[in-house]
Amino acid sequence: xxxxxxxxxxxxxxxxxxxxxxxxxxxxxxxxxxxxxxxxxxxxxxxxxxxxxxxxxxxxxxxxxxxxxxxxxxxxxxxxxxxxxxxxxxxxxxxxxxxxxxxxxxxxxxxxxxxxxxxxxxxxxxxxxxxxxxxxxxxxxxxxxxxxxxxxxxxxxxxxxxxxxxxxxxxxxxxxxxxxxxxxxxxxxxxxxxxxxxxxxxxxxxxxxxxxxxxxxxxxxxxxxxxxxxxxxxxxxxxxx
Length: 241
Fold this sequence. Notes:
Layout: H1 2-19, E1 25-39, E2 57-58, E3 61-73, E4 78-103, E5 109-124, E6 127-132, E7 140-161, E8 172-175, E9 182-196, E10 199-210, E11 230-240
Antiparallel strand pairs: 1-3, 1-11, 2-4, 3-4, 4-5, 4-6, 5-7, 6-7, 7-8, 7-9, 9-10, 10-11
């Protein structure tokens, strides 16, 4: 319900702004960046883990995003934005591997780790309303925005990897059948950019929250928790022309 209200407000704001201006200008572009994402609760084998997974520590999944953008510049410092992104998200856990020691180029040693990842990759269509806090005549801008991002899951896997120097174990992959195929995220962020003639370069700081549950069930077949949402923080570089 909240996401539908936000979508309605985005459309309403866009119509109001459009009605105040007889002119609009479309600006296509592209962006690329990286994500830091995490579940709000431990799930599956890490919810009351058995002995094999009890030493794993929860972490965040570091992943990438990339896609194309289309902005429609309006009056009164408003911009309507649409993006089409390949967005990698999920969760990660790590376990110290005492069988392996990694030697660095400087002759030092460091610990090696096994990593278990929930790899959830989405095709997203973020829709945003942006407001420029700088004067329109300035070539630099600071834009705050709010929006919603419908998405479809393209990759739904768990992956357990070991250090390359650990010959006793191979990478293990498994499909995650309970992941929600269609979902949405509420997004907000800030863009810092500069215009060069008709082109623009900017950096984008974004926070995303998935109000839908990541999984379609609250517990799996073994009774372990699947009741979780997901946060994602994104840092990206963009170009518009």
